[in-house]
């Protein structure tokens, strides 16, 4: 049973480009969470999705960021017109349910904006 | 007030020492509690869930005090391999919510 798979592991983008981060949850998991971790900082919740639905996006910046979890395929975190401040590790986690169930993390995507 | 607060440390202890981490949470509706461990530049990994009755897993003991909104993690007989950042995690668990992470407490165990 493969764990949570994220790709790419490392992504370099120039300012103004778009970044697409992918996350395939563990088999049987229908809940996906995205977190961002800035250097020397803790994990910040961004968005929580179930298949085809955004449940909680209270941690998402209002502009340039979007997320989806389609019926088929991985969850995508999309950052448009990246800026240097977007450089961070983006972790995806998945769980079987959304109520009090532990989540399992992917290895993360390290985004560097140059 | 932050949702989940932890002393960032670092805690520097010798091998064999006993060390305790504390965590407080602000939302009294929180229902589920966990400790995760994160090694440098790696993903967080579940260490243990925290139950109201307290629970133990080998050298690790977790306690929950709902009245004080306080969670603790005790590590006995510290090993070099215990060096990591320990994350206190809370879930409100109503209507589907994400896990909320504290910033973590850094532990460094030396020989």
Describe the structure.
The complex is a heterodimer of chains A (114) and B (111). By secondary structure, chain A is mainly β. Chain A contains no helices and eleven strands. In chain A, a hairpin with a 5-residue loop joins strand 4 (31-37) and strand 5. Chain B is built from no helices and eleven strands. Chain B has strands at residues 4-6, 11-14, 19-25, 32-38, 45-50, 55-57, 60-65, 70-75, 84-91, 100-101, 105-110. In chain B, the strands form two sheets. In chain B, strands 2, 4, 5, 9, 10 and 11 form a six-stranded mixed sheet that branches. In chain B, a hairpin with a 2-residue loop joins strand 6 and strand 7. The radius of gyration of chain B is 14 Å and the shape is globular. The mean pLDDT of chain B is 90. Chain A binds chain B through residues 31, 33, 35, 41-45, 48, 50, 55-56, 89, 91, 93, 98-108, and chain B through 31-32, 34, 41-46, 49, 87, 91, 93-94, 96-104.
What attributes does this structure have?
heterodimer, A: 114 residues, mainly beta, seven-stranded mixed β-sheet, four-stranded antiparallel β-sheet, 49% strand, B: 111 residues, five-stranded antiparallel β-sheet, globular
What fraction of residues of chain A sit in β-strands? over 45%
Largest interface: A-B, 26 and 23 residues
* Gross geometry of chain A: globular
The SSE order of chain A reads EEEEEEEEEEE
Largest sheet of chain B: 6 strands, mixed
Count of alpha/pi helices of chain B: 0
Poorly predicted runs of chain A: none
Q: What sort of overall outline of chain B do the alpha carbons produce when their principal axes are compared?
A: globular
Instruction: Briefly note the structural class of the backbone of chain B.
Output: mainly beta
Instruction: Give the N-to-C terminal Cα separation of chain A.
Output: 36 Å
Question: Helices and strands of chain A: which structural class?
Answer: mainly beta
**Head-to-tail CA distance between termini of chain B:** 37 Å
Largest sheet of chain A: 7 strands, mixed
Number of strands of chain B: 11
Give the proportion of residues in helices of chain A.
under 10%
Order of H and E elements of chain B: EEEEEEEEEEE
What's the mean pLDDT score of chain B?
90
Mean pLDDT of chain A: 92
